[in-house]
Amino acid sequence: MRWISRGLMVVGTMVLCQCAGSMGAGNMGGPTVEERKAAIASEPSGDFFYGRRYYIEKTRFWGYVKRPRQSWDKAKLAIIREDKKRQPDRLPENGPQGARYGYDHNFEYRLNGYFTGKEAYDPNSNQFLPEFMLTGYEVVNRNPGWLFRPDDKYDPYRITVYPR
């Protein structure tokens, strides 16, 4: 009986600290670690950013944004400011599959714009996040796979993919 209690305590602790979300193989697919490092090292550089759309239902952040040749671990989860350009998936939330807000989850983009130096609040994730003023974008990859580690697990209802 004692081992059952301990087992339940371990499982409960793993769920509460989200340790269980990083155990085992991820569900995002993608390249090997070496292939990802080589791809980042060979990225064209310039006065732009790379962004990875990260859609979680009911949140208003856009995704992760980084400089060229910078590791994704250095990326910032950001909110897009749309004064100059609307974000790529600015569509109705209840539209048809593939044509609704968030359809582009995990797409990789080349983003033109800049961090404004301000933070914006996303009430649904309870976070103050850097604000990125978007001035243009183009899709780089529609299926790049994992973002931070090969064991990344995506859940559309909670934040599970973050740098550690």
| Distance separating the two termini | 36 Å
Overall geometry comes to globular
* Helix-strand topology string: HHEEEEE
How many helices? The count is 2
Strand content: 25-35%
Quote the average pLDDT: 85
Radius of gyration: 17 Å
Number of domains: 1
Binned, the helix content reads: 10-25%
How many DSSP-defined strands? Answer: 5
Largest sheet: spatial strand order = 1-2-3-5-4
Largest sheet: 5 strands, mixed, barrel
Q: Please state the structural category.
A: alpha+beta
Give the low-confidence spans: 3-22
Oligomer: single chain
Walk me through the topology:
Blueprint: H1 2-16, H2 33-41, E1 49-53, E2 63-66, E3 76-81, E4 108-122, E5 127-141
Parallel strand pairs: 3-5
Antiparallel strand pairs: 1-2, 1-4, 2-3, 4-5
